[in-house]
Amino acid sequence: LERVIKSGARFNPDKAKWFNQEYLRKQTNSQLAEQFSSILEEKGITVESNEKGIRADFENKNFSFGYVESLCGLIKERAHFVADFWDICSYFFIAPASYAEKDVKKFWNAETKAIIEKMYSHIEAMDPQMQVPQIEEYLTGYVKENEWKMGAVMNTLRLFFVGEAKGLGIADIVYLIGQKETLGRISAAIE
Question: Which of 26, 64, 128, 157 has its CB 3.0 to 4.6 Å from that of 51, i.e. a possible disulfide?
Fold first, then answer.
């Protein structure tokens, strides 16, 4: 009893968040996708629970369970709670309605517009069956080949896909949302 502290215990919310984050990391992507699916349903997004492949229908807000499962694998390191998932990855389900003004000022100009138009054509010519590593190499190789600033190009693309210059890697985003949605978001942003 000599080593027992007489003062009351202190609750540390940061430590509680950390414990929950560790708990999330240990759950399978499938378990997290099941939990996240109910949040998506509340947002008006349908998840086909029996569909294991990766499929996204943005127009009808209908996604396969495999799509949600893959996404959970990418974002679980960034979240403390399943409830955080929507804020982290809503752009994987709906295109951004607006763009962060500070990021637009920083990355969007006449020179960048010309580069992004060329990137559009390059993405349009991309094999839609490419996996994340091939997409990464395909995009970064093209930027390096043309001697463009990697950060400016990738952050501009991220701005168009996410609505701000933060988020998951460009190759992950392009792979999951697909070539058609990728091109659509670039077109919408350029206009």
Answer: 64
